Amino acid sequence: MLNVQRLRVLREVAARGSFSAAADALSYTQSAVSQAVARLEAETGVPLIERDRGRVRPTVAGAALIDHADGILSRLEVAEADVASIAGARGGRLRMASFPTAGATLMPLAIATFRASHPDVELSLAEGEPEEIVPRLRAGEFDLVLVYEFHGVSEKLGAGMRRFDLLEDPMRVALPEGHALSGRDTLRLRDLREESWVQTSTSTPYARYVVRSCHAAGFEPRVSFESDDFQTVQGLVAAGVGVALIPQLALSSVRDDVVIRPLHPRGPVRGVLAATPRGAAVMPAVATMVDVLRTAARHYVGADA
Q1: CATH classification for the domain delimited by 168-269, as one of 3.60.40.10, 3.40.190.10, 3.40.50.720, 1.10.1740.10
Q2: What's the pTM value of the predicted model, to 2 decimals?
Q3: pLDDT of residue 305
Q4: What DSSP letter does each residue of the chain carry, written as one string?
Q5: In this model, does residue 74 exceed pLDDT 80?
Q6: So what's the pLDDT on residue 284?
Q7: Which residue of 59, 128, 198, 213 is surrounded by the most CB atoms within 10 Å?
């Protein structure tokens, strides 16, 4: 295999017309330049440089090799620049995914902040529930994902993953306007034991956690309707067909005919976290985005409904 550094020497000799000028440009000795060209000629088996009236110029074989060397060295320079830019978080690509409510609140703020300081990093964002995007993270499709988890009912990230806790997202009670309980500033979960409920699909970690929380409060929730879209849940609550527990992040937009109340004492919460493959976590672009997400999360910590 041809030596890249010797190709660079050959190109410099041809461009400057002498071994001594090439040596000066490369900060080599003239002897080192002569030896590099001689070894390259030995590797190729043909003369690459000839002398002509006190100057040197490439032979036909030398000119052909220099043409290839130009392309090879140019590609290497681009590769080195790409690696350097990724290492410095100044370029490259960061592939992300998020669950929908964080994708509509936390992630846009983080992306805007990140892009302002690192405009050359190509960002992409996909959307999905944790049970959909975590396997894709493990498969190498993403560099970073935002997920939520409920204690005891959520899928584990598994080995080789690193987690960064961002915030706790409390559940709020959603009631139809004019409901008998809407006049209270706070509610207890057991106050809702006689109500019909609207919640997400039975198989979701969210629904399983709500049911567990109701059991802990001493009752079985009577679920009348299910929807995995929290705007639809609000619509059903507004229609008076049930009450619901909705995460704070999903309440960036609240209908006028829905009343939101906190639970007291501390009600159910979900943890919001960023997850990365363990190796990716040390990449500057990923590490920077994690820091940006932590700062963005502070805007939502302790937010009232």
Answers
A1: 3.40.190.10
A2: 0.67
A3: 43
A4: ---HHHHHHHHHHHHHSSHHHHHHHHT--HHHHHHHHHHHHHHHTS--EEEETTEEEE-HHHHHHHHHHHHHHHHHHHHHHHHHHHHTTSSSEEEEEE-HHHHTTHHHHHHHHHHHH-TTSEEEEEE--HHHHHHHHHTTS-SEEEEEE-TTTSPP--TTEEEEEEEEEEEEEEEETT-TTTT-SSB-GGGGTTSEEEES-TTSHHHHHHHHHHHHTT---EEEEE-S-HHHHHHHHHTTS-BEEEEGGGGSS--TTEEEE-BSS---EEEEEEEEETTGGGSHHHHHHHHHHHHHHTTTTT---
A5: no
A6: 84
A7: 198
